[in-house]
């Protein structure tokens, strides 16, 4: 039953993020805002609930399946990629570099925080 509550909480956070993006008109995905809301809720709670941990343990190994629609969408636009390949390559490269840097910084932050305890 805790896993069901965790999935419901994830969906509620995503819906709240989508709602905030539409109401405020933010130029970011609603899922990202929902993820930030989840992060803030976990910071306030101060711990990771067991059901959420179990759910994440089952979902994370299969996360790559969520990228299949995006990759399929890119393959539909090969003509446009031929014309605009440089901005596409730059966006992919810079986006990956930023993601790696933020992930490394987050890892270091979590590592320092857990070593204090």
Your description of this structure?
The protein is mainly alpha-helical and 117 residues long. Helices cover 81% and strands 0% of the residues. The chain has six helices and no strands.
Structural class: mainly alpha
**Using DSSP, what is the number of strands?**
0
Number of helical stretches of at least 4 residues: 6
- Beta percentage is under 5%
How is the main sheet built? none
What integer is the average pLDDT?
90
In whole angstroms, the N-to-C terminal distance is: 30 Å
Query: Which shape, going by the Cα principal axes?
Result: globular
Proportion of helical residues: over 70%
Radius of gyration: 18 Å
Identify low-pLDDT runs.
none
What order do the helices and strands follow? Answer: HHHHHH
